[in-house]
Amino acid sequence: MFFSDPEEMRQIKGTAFNKPARTFDPVLGYRWNQDIRFTRVANGEIVADRRPKINKQGFHCSFDYERKKPSDRAFRFIALGDSFTNDLSCSEAWPETLHRLLRSRSEHGLDVQVYGMPTDGGGLMNWYTVLKDYILPDYELDALIIGDWGDDLLRKWAHGHCTDAGVFWAWAELDERPSSVEEVLADLDKMANIYEVANDQKIDEVMDRLKKNADPQPVTMEYDPADEEIPAGYEFCADSFKERYGEHRFSLLEQIMAMCKERGIKVIYSKLPSREDVYYLIDNPGAKTFRQAEGEWIARHFGVMWFDGLSIFADLPATSIRDFYWLKYDGHWNQGASTYYALRLADWIISEGIVSTT
């Protein structure tokens, strides 16, 4: 990411933090450290430069989480997901936006809370350990929101740790995951060093030079429709899920749903879109992507609520999706899309009467 010749600017890309940003956690995979700065550059353009608010529990949120609900008039959601729910490139993650939106409906007389507990780079295996070994033993909750994006159902258990040498990252099967920081440090050379760590002064020097030499280039809106379409003759069922993801992953998803059902916890299953998902839906009105159909089947099969996070963007102009809802040169959405998702989810939650104390 760091360069000495302005002519090299177009080749500059990378991500850097101003200090070690993550500390390994044997249940969560990692916790974010406080007072971090997240910067990302691609093609010589600044993609993100944020100082996310990290709470005492190590999540991207401006307020700390309490284990017990404040009263019997409180209704608490907890959201699981990946980097789209973590929203580190946004000033506020969508669970916190949802928290503020739902709390604005004071006529219900309820103390609504939304806690985000996602795993950046994680998926189903992390959701399982976070729910089973972190949330359920200690946190009171009324509803679980699962924000499923991309290949989350395929991912192994994601974990990371940081030192001054960089941000180290790995995936492991559940029965092979490390159990301590000491174990991670001993195997650090086997992990991928994916991001840099540099002080604020060095980062500022790069950011200032990129701003002075800024020459943003247009981007295309290309995508491959074949990546979005449902294969001819494909049947969504337990057998096809197991064939695609494996019996073990089906079992983990089944256990997540069962743990919630046993405790009377409502579950909202939602697919979150890629930019390409949205382009496809805009170009093909009335169509349904593979991921939409899969999400509908998962919700129906397990008897949980389904919120379609893809179709809500289909009525927006493609140019707006490109320019205001997704990060340039990056697959993640930006604050525009994150806030829009939270707003539409809040509308749906109220219309469905999900928030109650009965």
Any overview of this molecule?
With 358 residues, the chain is α/β, with parallel strands linked by helices. It has two domains: 1-51 and 156-213, no CATH class; 62-153 and 227-353, SGNH hydrolase (Rossmann fold, 3-Layer(aba) Sandwich), CATH 3.40.50.1110. Helix content is 33%, strand content 20%. It has eleven helices and 13 strands. It has helices at residues 83-86, 94-103, 124-138, 181-186, 200-212, 238-245, 247-262, 275-283, 290-302, 318-325, 335-351, and strands at 14-17, 22-23, 31-32, 38-42, 45-50, 74-80, 111-116, 143-149, 157-163, 166-172, 192-197, 266-272, 305-308. The strands form three sheets. A six-stranded mixed β-sheet has the order 5-4-1-11-10-9. A hairpin with a 2-residue loop joins strand 4 and strand 5 (45-50). The longest helix has 17 residues, at 335-351. The N and C termini lie far apart (53 Å).
